[in-house]
Write a structure and sequence with these properties.
The complex is a heterotetramer, with 1 copy of chain A (745 residues), 2 copies of chain B (80 residues) and 1 copy of chain D (235 residues).
Chain A (H helix, E strand, L loop, with lengths): L11 H6 L4 H11 L5 H10 L2 H4 L4 H4 L9 E3 L7 E6 L2 E9 L1 H6 L1 H17 L4 E11 L7 H24 L3 E8 L8 E11 L14 E6 L9 H5 L5 H4 L10 H15 L4 E6 L4 H13 L2 E5 L12 H6 L5 E6 L4 H10 L4 E8 L3 E6 L2 E7 H5 L28 H9 L8 H4 L10 E3 L6 E5 L4 E8 L2 H6 L1 H18 L3 E10 L6 H21 L3 E7 L3 E2 L2 E2 L3 E10 L16 E5 L10 H7 L11 H16 L5 E4 L4 H10 L5 E5 L7 H6 L6 E5 L4 H10 L4 E8 L3 E6 L2 E6 H17 L1
Helix pairs in contact in A: 7-8, 7-11, 8-11, 11-14, 16-26, 19-20, 19-22
Chain B lengths: L1 E8 L6 H12 L5 E14 L4 H16 L5 E7 L2
Antiparallel strand pairs in B: 1-2, 1-3
Chain D lengths: L1 E6 L6 H8 L6 E6 L10 E4 L20 H10 L3 E5 L1 H8 L6 E3 L7 E9 L15 E8 L3 E3 L2 H9 L3 E6 L18 E5 L5 E4 L17 H17 L1
Parallel strand pairs in D: 1-2, 1-3, 3-4, 4-11
Antiparallel strand pairs in D: 5-8, 6-7, 6-9, 9-10, 10-11
The chains are: A alpha+beta (745), B alpha+beta (80), D alpha/beta (235).
The structure holds adenosine-5'-diphosphate and magnesium ion.
Amino acid sequence: MANLSANPAITPELIAKHGLSPEEYEKVLVILGREPSFEELGVFSVMWSEHCSYKNSRPELRKFPTTGPSVLVKAGEENAGVIDIGDGWAVAFKIESHNHPSAVEPFQGAATGVGGIIRDIFTMGARPVFLMDSLRFGSIKGDSEQAKTNRRLFAGVVAGIAHYGNCIGLPTIAGEVYFDDSYNGNPLVNAFCLGILRHEQIARGAAEGIGNPVFYVGAETGRDGLAGAAFASRELTEESKADRPAVQVGDPFREKLLLEACLELLATDCVAGIQDMGAAGLTCSTCETASRGGTGVEIDIQLVPQRAKGQTPYEVLLSESQERMLVIVKKGQEATVKEIFEKWDLPYAEIGVVTDDGQMRVRNGKDVVVDVPARALADDGPLYSREAAPFTPPAPLDLATVTQADPLKALPQLLSHPSIASKRWVWRQYDHMVRTGTAVLPGSDAAVFIVREANKILAAATDCNAIYCKLDPSVGSRIAVAECARNLACSGAVPIGVTDNLNFGNPHKPENFYQLRAAVEGISEGCRAFGVPVTGGNVSLYNESPAGAIDPTPTISMVGRIDDIAHITTQSFKQAGDQIILIGETGDELGGSHYLLAIHGRKEGAPPVLVFEKEIAIHHALLSLIRKGLVRSAHDCSEGGLAVTLAESCFGTKFGATVDLGDTDQRPDVLLFNETQGRIVISVKASDVAVVEAELAKSCVHFRKIGEVTDKADLSIKTGGNCYSWSIDSLNETFEGAIPSLMES
Amino acid sequence: MKAVVTVMPKPAILDPAGVATARAMEHLGLKGVHSVRIGKSIEIEIDGADPSSLTEQLHEICHDLLSNPVVEDYKLEILS
Amino acid sequence: MKAVVTVMPKPAILDPAGVATARAMEHLGLKGVHSVRIGKSIEIEIDGADPSSLTEQLHEICHDLLSNPVVEDYKLEILS
Amino acid sequence: MKVAVIQFPGSNCDTDCQAALLFFPGVTAEIVWHKETSLAGYDVIVLPGGFSYGDYLRCGSIARFSPIMAAVRLAASTGVLVLGICNGFQILCEAGLLPGTLMRNRDLLFRCETLHLRVENNDSPFTSVLHQGQVLEIPIAHGEGRYFADAETLQALKANNQVLVRYCDASGNVSAAANPNGSLENIAGICSHGRNVFGLMPHPERVCDLILGGTDGRGIFQSMIDWMAAHKSNN
Ligand SMILES: Nc1ncnc2c1ncn2[C@@H]1O[C@H](COP(=O)(O)OP(=O)(O)O)[C@@H](O)[C@H]1O
Ligand SMILES: [Mg+2]
C-alpha cells in the first residue's frame, strides 16, 4: 500500500477526531489485518457514523413492520421503499432530515436537504411528483436575540426549500411547522419526496456484473460538505458552526438535468445499477453498491470530475458535493449512456469497474489508497444497544390547577399561536401547483395529488405532536401515526404506507435512548393497527443545544390512496343549512394541550389517550360515508381542540356555524379546547342527516349532531348555560395574520 | 458619504449561477473562460462627513446583514 | 486575465431589495441611510494575455447577457 | 392544430402545458428540445414556465440564446402564434420579442396562489373568445414577475392595446391591493405589436381541469384554437 507522504500519521488523536472509538478502531484493524491508510480511516469514519450506519438505532428499527402484500421493495433494502398501487404502477417515497446543516446555514441546508431526498427517489427509477416538509424552530415571538435568530432560521429554511423545490419543478403540497423553545439552536428540517414508477422500472443500487464500467455523472466534486455525515452525527457546538466546509451549496438546476438524464437513461436497457451520492459521497455509493451486488468496485480518483485543483484523494472521497450519481453501466452500452449525458450537458466520466473480489478499492493513479472489504464497511459496522432510562408515565393533569380562561379570548389566542396559525406564509412561497396534479392544496387536512400518467389519486400528510412525545414518547408516537391516518381519512383516503423521521437527542443519554425506543415501538404499534408498512425513513440523533435535547420528534409521513375523484373531501364547509356532526367522544383531557401551553404556559400532564380500535372504527365509518357521497366536509380535531376545528372549517368560505354542545357541566374551556383523540367534524346535507346517523350508529361509533352551517359569518357555540360568539372575519384575520406579522417585525 | 460593499461567494463554495453563466459565455463565442463568480455589489449613501467613525459600524453591518459569513466574503470601500 | 463587471439597477428603477436592506440597516442602529442599491458583481477569469482584443467582446457580453439594458447599467473593469 | 412546447434545460411546466393542450380535440402538442433549430410545420409555439438554466443571472437571460430561439424569432416574424407563460414570458422579454422586463417581486418573496385577472382586450388571437372586462381566476407562481417598462414603451403598449390582462380583485377592480408583485399598472400579460406573441406571468395551463380548481385557463387556449381555425380556413 503506497501512502502519500503528505498524509498525517494515524494517532489516537486523529482516530478520535474521526469520531471512531478505540473499540471501533480495533475492529478496523481486525478487518484490514493492518493499520488503515489516512483515506481508509476517513472512509471508516463516515461509513460507521450514525448517519450512515445507524449503529445506535438499527436494532430498534428492526421492530418496524415492513412487509405487506403491496410492498415491492422493503425498507432498508434500497434508497427508498416501493409500494404497489395497482395497474402496474408503484410509488417510492421517503423522508430525510437535514437538521444540522440547516442550523449552520438555513437556506442552503434546507435546499440541499430537499435535493438529497429527491435523488433518493429518482435513484429508484421513480419520477418524483411531490414534496412535503416537516419543520421545527424555537419561538419566533418577541425581540430577544433568540427569537430573531429563530425568525432568521425559519425564513431561511422556507426560502431554501422553496428555492430547490420550485426550481426543480416539484410541488410542495403539505407539511407542518411547530415552534417550541426546545428547538432553539437546533431546528428540524425534514423533507419528504414521493415518486411514481412502473413495476418494471424499479432500479437497484447494486454493482452488478463483473467487468461493467462504473460511471460518475453530475456536478464536479469540490471541497464542500467534507465529511458531513460525521458532522450530522455529533452534537452542535459553537465550534461546529465554524466548521465552514460542512456547508454544501445546492444547484437545483443541475439536479433537474440529472433527474431527467437518469430517468431517460433508466428507460433504456443500459443500467446495471445506480446510486446517488448522498451522505459520505463517493465513498458510500461505491461500497454500498458493491456490498449490495456482492461484488467489488475499483475506481480511480484521478478520473473523477473535479471543481477545484489540488484536491487530495481524501477530500475527493469524502466530499459531499451535491447533485452527483454513480451509474453501473452494462458493458458495451457506454455510447448510449454518454449520448444521454451529453444531451443534458452533464459532466461525466468512466471512473472504474465492477470487480469480483468484494473489495472497495480506490486508486489515485497508480497508487492504491483504499482497499477494504465493501461488505465490512457497509453492512458489518458496529451496532450498539444503548441503555434506556426507566420511564414512569406522567400523572394526568389536575384540572383544579388550571384556571379557567375566557373562551372568547382564548380562541383567538390559540388561532394566533404560531404552531396553530395558518401556514400560508410558508406554502405560498412553495410552488404547490406545478405538475398540475394538486387537487387539494395545502391548508386542508391532507393534500391530494392526482398522478396524471398513472391515473391514480394519492393523499399525503405529515404529523407529529412533539409535546405529547415529550410527555410520553410511546403514546405520542402512536398519536402521530393515528393523526396522519385521520388526516388522510378526512380527505377520503386509505393509508398505504408510512415513512418516518426519528429526530432525537444524544442516544448516549439513557432518557434520550428511551425516547427513541418507545417511539419506534409506538410507531410500530400504530402501523400494525392501521395495517400499513413502514417503507423507510431516517434517523437524526444528537439534536441538542447547550440547553439540552430537543423534544423527541418522530415525524410521521403517511401516503394514502383515493379510489374515485368523487371521494376527495376537504375541511371547509360547503353550504349554509348543512348539518354539523361530531364523530367521536369528547373527554376532558387538557394534558399536553396547546390550550395549556399557549394560554397557561405549561407543558405538562399526560397526553390524551388513544384507543386504536375506536380510532379505526371512526376512520372506517367516515370513509364509508364519504364513499356513499354523504360527506360535504370533514376535518379532524387536533391542536386547539374542537373550537379551532370549527373555526378552521369556516375559514376561506363565506359561511359560519351555529353549534350547541348541549347541557353539560363540563368546564367550557375544557370542552372547547381539549385534545381528545379520534374526533372528526363533518358536515352533511340536511336531507342526508337521517341516513348518516343511521350509518354511524351501525358502525358503532360515538357521534352527535352539534349544529349547522349558516350564511352568517359568525361562529357561535352554546355549551351548558353559556353562549360564545366570534366573528369569522376577525378570527380569520388573527389566524392568517399571525405568522406574517411576526415575520415582518 | 458613499460606501460600496462587494459580497462574493467564498472561493471553495460552489457558485451555480457562475457556472451556468460561464457556459453561456462560451456558447456566445468567448473562449477560454476559466471561472465566473457572481456576487453582490451594494451601494450605500449615508449622512455623515466623517468616514472613520462609521467604518466600524459598517463593517459590523457587512458581517451581520449584507453578507452571510458562512458562504460569503465581503469587501468594504468607503468612497468619500 | 481577470475582469470585473458591476451591474446596477438604473437610478430611476425601484429596487425593493435595496429599500428593505436600508430599513434593516436602520433597525441595526445605523443612522441617516439615504439609499441602498443592490446590484451584481461578476468576476471573470479568462485565458488571454492581451486585454485590448477581448475588451470589445466583453462589452458585447455585458450588454447582451450580463445586464438587462432596460433596467440596468453595467461597468466593465479589466484588472490584468 | 400542431403545437410545439419548447423544453429548455430547467423548463418544468412543459408537460403541464402539453397535457392542458391535449384536452382540446384536434390539438397535437409536442415537446421540442431547445437544441433543435427548426420549428417548421408548427402552428403555435409555447414557451412554458420553469427555471430555464436555473434562472441564474436573470430569469430567461441565458435561455434567450438557446439554439431554438432563432427559429422562434423567425416563426414570430411570420405571424405564427407564440405564447410565453411565466418563465416563457421572461424569455420573450429578454429576447426582445416583447417589450419591457420582469423584475423581482416587490415583497422579495416567491408567490404561488390563485388570483384574479381582468381581460383588458379581446382583440387578439389569445383572448378572442373572452369578453373585455371578464374576470378570470388563474394562479401565479413566481418570484420575479414585476412587469416594468419605461414610460415611452408603456405609452405605446397602451396606445396599441397590447396589455391583454391585468391583476384585479374578485369584482374586476384593478387596484394596488390586487397587485401581487408590484407590476407596473397591474400588468399581468402583454402581446406584441403584431399581436401574435403573448406573454403572461399567470399559468392558464393549471386551470384547465375542474378537479384542479377551475377551467378559466381554457379560454386562452380556446382563443388560439379558434383563431387558428379561422386563420387557416381564410388562407
Ligand atoms: N411547512 C409546510 N409546508 C406545506 N404545507 C404546510 C406546511 N405547514 C403546514 N402546512 C399545511 O397547512 C395545513 C395545516 O397544517 P397543520 O396545522 O399541521 O394540520 P393538521 O393539524 O391537520 O395536521 C395542512 O394542509 C398542511 O399540509
Ligand atoms: Mg388535521
